[in-house]
């Protein structure tokens, strides 16, 4: 049985990566909202990538992170990587 990352798990990762920043609001349908519009800068995304590597063993390259601009894209990338690892 493979590991699945869903929207709730992704939001947990993003909240953890944002730290205590109260301006980040992930409630509601934010999957297609740009990370910049959600208040995520490159450091927050690097932290999210680090959490993903620790939890799921998926390493995101700098190029991949630059091309992933929304939570939906990140979620799809994680699901594809987990499917390929099975």
From TrEMBL:
Protein name in UniProt: Acyl carrier protein
Lineage, highest ranks first: Bacteria, Bacillati, Actinomycetota, Actinomycetes, Mycobacteriales
Pfam families tied to this protein: PP-binding (PF00550)
Keywords: Phosphopantetheine, Phosphoprotein
Residues of the Carrier domain: 4-82
SUPFAM superfamilies from the UniProt entry: ACP-like
């Amino acid at each position: 049985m493979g590991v699945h990352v869903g929207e709730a798990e992704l939001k947990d990762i993003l909240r953890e990566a944002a730290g205590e920043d109260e301006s980040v609001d992930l409630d509601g349908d934010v999957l297609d909202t740009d990370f910049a519009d959600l208040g995520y800068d490159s450091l927050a995304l690097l932290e999210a990538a680090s959490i993903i590597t620790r939890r799921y063993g998926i390493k995101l390259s700098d190029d991949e992170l630059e091309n992933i601009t929304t939570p939906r894209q990140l979620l799809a990338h994680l699901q594809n990587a987990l499917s390929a690892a099975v």
